[in-house]
Amino acid sequence: MNSPKVTIITLNYNQNQYTIDCVISILKSEYSNFEIILVDNGSTHENFKDLERKLPKDGRLIISRYEENTGYVGGVNKGLSQANRSNPDYLLVMNNDTLIDKNAIDELVKTSTE
User: Fold this and answer.
1) Integer angstrom CA distances of residue 37 from 1, 16, 28, 106, 113
2) pTM as predicted
3) CA gyration radius for the chain?
4) What are the start-end ranges of the H helices in the chain?
5) Nearest to 10 by CA among 2, 27, 21, 22
6) Which residues contact 20 (CB under 8 A, 6 or more apart)?
């Protein structure tokens, strides 16, 4: 049986180091069937270019850039809209200053399927 697909959404607004640390913690996950949608919600052009350079190159990471900051809810809604295109089984919205344990996604999926 295939593992359920999890799409993780996080936002960045001129907070590169938080965002990079968050993404790296997700990419270290033991759970394999996930993707990350990183919504850059109106960061300065220089900040965004710096973020792109420093983020790990990984096919599970999708970066969406929006020129205008639409606030937290607007950014999350953009991420949810994009996530729905890949028809995930689960959605996980995380603040960009969150670090997760390598087993966190697996445990969340197990809990939700019991």
Assistant:
1) 25, 15, 16, 18, 23
2) 0.94
3) 14
4) 16-27, 45-54, 71-84, 104-113
5) 22
6) 51, 54, 55
Q: Which residues contact 3 (CB under 8 A, 6 or more apart)?
A: 31, 32, 33, 109
Reading the chain (114 residues) residue by residue, the pLDDT tens digits are 589 999 999 999 999 999 999 999 999 999 999 999 999 999 999 999 999 999 999 999 999 999 999 999 999 999 999 999 999 999 999 999 999 999 999 999 999 987
Question: Alpha-carbon distance 102 to 95, whole Å?
Answer: 17
Q: Give the type of residue at 75.
A: G
- Most distant CA atoms of the chain, gap in Å: 45
Edge-first strand listing for the sheet containing 61-66:
61-66, 34-41, 6-12, 90-93
